[in-house]
Specification:
The protein is an all-alpha fold and 233 residues long. It folds into 2 domains: 163 residues, Four Helix Bundle (Hemerythrin (Met), subunit A) (Up-down Bundle), CATH 1.20.120; 62 residues. α2 packs parallel to α5.
Length: 233
C-alpha cells in the first residue's frame, strides 16, 4: 500500500507530460537502465569484500550510494528530471500488482538498499553475521533485476508514447496554421472588396482591419508555439 508520505512525494513531482523534454526522457531511460548494472555491481563487490578483497568494500559502498541517489532522482525528480510524471510510471514503482506494477517495486528497491547497507556494514565490522547478510543480499538480487528491467521497459514505452503524442500535436499545429492562414487570406480579400466600394466608411474598414490584426496575432502565437515544440524546449 502506498503511504501518505509517498503520495505527497508523488504529487509534488508530477509535471505536465508536455513539459517533459526529449533530453529528460533520454536521461531517465539511461538512469533506469544503469540501475540494473549498479545493483549487480553492489552484490559482486559485497561478495569480494566478504573475502577481504582490497578496495571492494569501498567500491560497494560508493556504488550503493549512487544506486540510492539515482532511485531518489527517478522517483522524486531533481536537476531537470521530472519524477514520476505519468500514471504508468507511478504504477510501475508503486503498483500493487493489479495493473502494470510488479507489486510495489519501490518497496523492493528500498528493501534491497537496506539489505545491501546491512551487509556492507556487517562486513566493515567483521561481524559473524556478515556472510548470512551477504547471502540475503544475493537472494534478493535476481528478483530485483527483473523488476528493474520492467521499470526500464516502462520508461521506454512512455518515451515512445510521448513521441507519438508530440508528433500528433505538431501535426495539429500545422493544420491550425494552415486554417488561420486561409482565414487571413479570406478576410484580407474581403477587406479589399470593402475598401474598393465607393460608399465605404471608415467604420467598416476598421472592423476588417481589427479582425486582420487579431488573426495575425493568433498566427504569430501559433508559429511561436510550433517553433517551441519542434525545437524540443
Amino acid at each position: 500500500m502506498v503511504t501518505t508520505i509517498e503520495r505527497i512525494q508523488v504529487a509534488r513531482s508530477e509535471p505536465a507530460e508536455a513539459d517533459v523534454s526529449n533530453e529528460a526522457l533520454s536521461s531517465l531511460i539511461n538512469i533506469a537502465g544503469r540501475q540494473r548494472m549498479l545493483s549487480q555491481r553492489i552484490v559482486f563487490k559485497a561478495m569480494l569484500a566478504l573475502r577481504e578483497s582490497d578496495g571492494a568494500l569501498a567500491i560497494a559502498q560508493d556504488t550503493l550510494r549512487t544506486f540510492a541517489d539515482s532511485h531518489a532522482a527517478l522517483v522524486q525528480g531533481r536537476d531537470g528530471l521530472p519524477g514520476l510524471f505519468s500514471p504508468a510510471l507511478r504504477d510501475a514503482f508503486h503498483g500493487n500488482g493489479n495493473g502494470h506494477g510488479n507489486g510495489h517495486v519501490a518497496k523492493k528497491i528500498a528493501d534491497f538498499i537496506a539489505l545491501a547497507s546491512a551487509a556492507l556494514d556487517a562486513i566493515a565490522r567483521k561481524s559473524p553475521n556478515a556472510e548470512s547478510a551477504v547471502q540475503a543480499l544475493i537472494a534478493s538480487a535476481d528478483p530485483l533485476l527483473s523488476d528493474l528491467h520492467g521499470v526500464t521497459a516502462v520508461y521506454e514505452q512512455e518515451s515512445r508514447r510521448i513521441a507519438r503524442a508530440q508528433k500528433k500535436e505538431q501535426q495539429q499545429l500545422i493544420e491550425r496554421i494552415k486554417s488561420i492562414a486561409k482565414e487571413a487570406h479570406i478576410v484580407s480579400f474581403n477587406g479589399q472588396i470593402v475598401a474598393s466600394r465607393a460608399d465605404v466608411t471608415g467604420r467598416e474598414f476598421a472592423v476588417v482591419a481589427g479582425v486582420m490584426t487579431s488573426i495575425t496575432k493568433e498566427l504569430e502565437a501559433v508559429v511561436s508555439a510550433f517553433v517551441k515544440k519542434t525545437s524540443g524546449t
